[in-house]
Fold these 2 entries.
Entry 1:
Amino acid sequence: MVMKATALAHPNIAFVKYWGFRDEHDRIPANGSISMNIGCLSTKTAVEYSQSFKEDRFVLNGEAVTGRGLFRVQQFLNRIRQMAQKAVFAYVESENNFPVGTGVASSASGFAALALAGTAALGLALSEDQLSSLARFGSGSACRSIPGGFVEWQTEARTGKSFAHSIAPANHWKLVDCIVVLSEDHKSVGSEDGMRTAGTSPLQQARVMDSERRLDLCRTAILTRDFDTLAKVTELDSNMMHAVMMTSEPPLFYWHPQSLEIMKAVKEWQKDGLEVTYTLDAGPNVHVIATQTDVGEVLVRLNQFPAVIDILKGVPAGPARLLSSGYQA
Ligand code: PMV
């Protein structure tokens, strides 16, 4: 019996972000979110199950993972094993094509690839909606790395379920995400722990209440390729999420002084007529997003900052995909 599959997925960057749960147990986000997959970055994950394995093992970028990292993967595998009604241990081998320590989170691409490879290896053929729904239990944003291109994750209130779907394909709009790496440190408070405190901020309720409006603006801006509106809503949404983080108990300060410097520079560049915007996740690195026309000039300007360690560039990318599947009952 062969139970093996390999899948590839891209991370994503959200224009309207998810931060906090409506229902943590069922991983229902407090608000919907919209993102695009990032083409230059990917995670490739091979999953093999065998009756002869005595335990689950997880190797990431050539190194065995133990402790909390392994536990998260095991919890996720348990969900898959339960779906397939099979009690077998797994060997999971995962590789990111981006260097470790760029401060770029790999949990979205990692759990999207694991959802696809882990289910295919047990002979489960899930629909895209089902896969996305499953992936959110590994890491919320992973559900947005299952469909391709520009993706919206709706809350359960509107759909009755919680999964993400594509609102436009990858080739719809050639935006370029320039990930400005300012720190290679592992973040001190990960998003999973960080967002548990979101409800302690008096600003969270206002952020969530206004989210439908931002989602409508963002979705329409993407569909009509309206960069100015996309820039306005993207920056507002990032600023709102960070305002919540900074006013939570305990407060979370993810920005570095240089992050703010770059955000302010982007605002100046917009006055020069460049189509450019910024957004930050739970870390100090700035995603500077530009149109294909203006990205060259934006890169020249970004490279003038002495604090910049690296700049990774990515255009919108397709869905998570199976590279090989060798399930034979
Ligand atoms: O995927 P998680 O559960 O680690 O959360 C990530 C949340 C943010 O990246 C900060 C925002 C988002 O919507 O991607």
Entry 2:
Amino acid sequence: MTDVRDYGNWIDGSWVKTSGTVERSSPANGKLLARFADSSEKEVDLAVKAARKAFDDRSVWSALPGAERAKAISRWIELLVRDTDKLAKMEAEEVGKPIRFARGETEWSIELARYAAALAWQIPSDLVSNAGDANLGLVIREPRGVIAMITPWNFPLVTLFQKLPYALAAGCTVVIKPSELTSSTTLEIAALAKEAGIPDGVINVVTGSGSAVGEALTGHRGIDMISFTGSTAVGKRIAARAAEQMKRVGLELGGKAANIVFADADIDAAIDGVLFGYILNQGEECVQGTRLLIEEKIADEFVGNLVERSKKIRTGLPEDDQADLGALIHEKHMEKVLGYIQSGLDEGARLEVGGKRLTDATFGKGFFVAPTIFSGVTPAMKIFREEIFGPVLAVTTFKTVDEAIALANDTNYGLGNGLWTKDIDKAIQVSRELKSGTVYVNTFLETTVQMPFGGYKESGIGRENGMDGLLEFTEVKSVFVKLGKRAHALPHTAG
Ligand code: NAP
Ligand code: MG
């Protein structure tokens, strides 16, 4: 599709090369796509110093009027819009996802930035004016400082844009470590920020491995907060490291979302939602609807329909404009997904469709797995409990509302859940009892940028997006002001 891209790190507004590189080949056909700098502690230190300087010199960014930052972010957005096709193409190639979804991801990222830019105009603050005549309290919000952002490979742009524009709006500066598999778009958008007039040092990107670059960043004294999206295992490691220096953390981690379908649902809409929910992004999705909880009396017919629809899913190469499903991220990950499928068989679930790698001439050079549905899944099975991160759906039946809620909550994760019913009372009551940061009612994975996003339980700490997402990048400061006595009465001027 493209010539091989060759990148350095983006530090203090310039490209900085390293001696070693990491190569990224297409997960769909094996072709070499890009080389990224294989960085170490040294580059991390350079980038943190640049971000530190840009933050600490208050006149550069952190103490500008919010309106100035809003305008700079808005100029950057115009460039992102201009380059949408280019960014989407890179995203599709490196992740292995179909181009139309990569375009959708880019457009959604821009939407997130638009909202963040609007928020930059006015960050909430409070005044305590009733503490007596001689006292005044100011409760102000300051930017948190230099933020390390560490992001995963499944949605390189969206996971970054749930953080970056909000941190910028608040007045923070950042050092980003994208996944070594999908670093191109992060590097590109950082360079675009310079073109938009965002000052050097405000956005820095250091590429390379989690074990070298990630560890150096999380341990660096110049970092005030770590904002991480990725697996729960790495998230726990980061939280433990952050605790050593009491760094702030924002963690967006794994999930095991359920779609609960009640018999009184709009069945056609529910089938669409469940299908979309389990195959979107090849199932490499933290809020993937990987579990279907279906009311027993409609289960056979519903699953039968879902199986027929799954057979019609169009798998395609990244450039295929009509494709629904692309390649998994790399071979080892595909093996892991196939391992989960094997565990479903071993533990006695019923394979309804799929269950294998695609090996024909078109897909054999890549890492493609067919949409897979298991029925008869029980909560004890691995495919019910663990994050598979592939196009695999586990179906479990229930008889009562209470049973549906208990099954949905029977997980260590709590990122999102969906529920389908025409009974609005039931929808709201069940929503209240689901232990997840998001509940989708009669839809799935659909939201609006004003709404916060994040997890209960082991799905994370903190919220992204919306005003809550911006406030995560601020510290609260109380300024208590003792006022002098009123000096004297006004001179008597009358008559
Ligand atoms: P991952 O293995 O946890 O990696 C995420 C990022 O952390 C990568 O940039 C990785 O670098 C880096 N990293 C690895 N070890 C590190 C360490 N010791 N210190 C600092 N950084 C380290 O996750 P992934 O496999 O890329 O992504 C899949 C996971 O992300 C899934 O569990 C999914 O649920 C989760 N996710 C969550 C959300 C959400 O918003 N809640 C969104 C998307 C994905 P390398 O890639 O270079 O190793
Ligand atoms: Mg990894």
